[in-house]
TrEMBL record:
A cellular-component GO term for this protein: mitochondrial inner membrane
Family named by the database record: Belongs to the TRAFAC class TrmE-Era-EngA-EngB-Septin-like GTPase superfamily. Era GTPase family.
Protein name: GTPase Era, mitochondrial
Lineage of the organism: Eukaryota, Metazoa, Chordata, Craniata, Vertebrata
InterPro entries reported in the protein's UniProt record: G_ERA_dom, GTP-bd, GTPase_Era-like, KH_dom-like_a/b, KH_sf_prok-type, P-loop_NTPase, Small_GTP-bd
Coiled-coil positions: none
Domain Era-type G: 6-185
Function noted in UniProt: Probable GTPase that plays a role in the mitochondrial ribosomal small subunit assembly. Specifically binds the 12S mitochondrial rRNA (12S mt-rRNA) to a 33 nucleotide section delineating the 3' terminal stem-loop region. May act as a chaperone that protects the 12S mt-rRNA on the 28S mitoribosomal subunit during ribosomal small subunit assembly.
NCBIfam families assigned to the protein according to its UniProt record, in alphabetical order: small_GTP
An annotated Gene Ontology molecular function: GTP binding
Keywords associated with the record: GTP-binding, Nucleotide-binding
């Protein structure tokens, strides 16, 4: 711990495929979260830690906010519905990621994002249309992680997510969301 540590928990939220994991990876300076062109690459909330000077930013990367009907219709796992909402509850700041290249969404916010913002009016929010930094928003507080910690994911989780990312890229006609990793005995 430094003499005067500061910490900020940042929930990165937005519609599916808005670029939340890409932004988180860029802020961390390395690839920690899986990224692909397909929606719902991020399956549950993951944590990344950015430490700079006496400040620690805890990035909470979330699945895209989606509706109950879409989860049921496409038989998606419950974490896609629950994790973004639970993550926002623990955040000091929300970063709302909007993909301005999406011609359907560039002029408005997604309804699920608006609902989330309205249910958490006391949590400050930043609209991100491009790269943003958070150091100036951190407040005085003890760090929660060692300065060399980068994520709460195990090496196996990172590998599994990166393999999923590559499968999503290499199998354009398939949706291999239920791919599981098996370790030989």
């Amino acid at each position: 711990q430094p003499a005067h540590p500061k910490v900020l928990k940042v929930a990165v939220i937005g519609a599916p495929n808005a670029g939340k994991s890409t932004l988180s990876n860029q802020l961390l300076g390395r690839k920690v979260f899986a990224v692909s062109r397909k929606v719902h690459t991020t399956r549950n909330r993951a944590l990344g830690v950015l430490t700079e000077g006496d400040t620690q930013i805890i990035l909470l990367d979330t699945p895209g906010l989606t509706t109950v009907s879409k989860v049921k219709r496409h038989q998606l796992e419950k974490s896609l519905l629950v994790d973004p909402w639970n993550t926002v509850k623990e955040a000091d700041l929300m970063v709302v990621m909007v993909d301005v290249s999406d011609r359907w969404m560039c002029g408005r916010l997604d309804m699920e994002v608006l609902k989330c913002l309205s249910q958490h009016p006391d949590t400050p929010a930043i609209l991100v249309l491009n790269k943003t930094y958070f150091i100036s928003k951190a407040k005085t507080g003890s760090w929660e992680y060692h300065s060399e910690v980068l994520t709460d994911q195990s090496p196996e989780d990172i590998c599994t997510n990166l393999v999923r990312e590559k499968l999503l890229e290499c199998l354009p006609q398939e949706v291999p969301y239920s791919v599981t990793q098996v370790t030989p005995v």
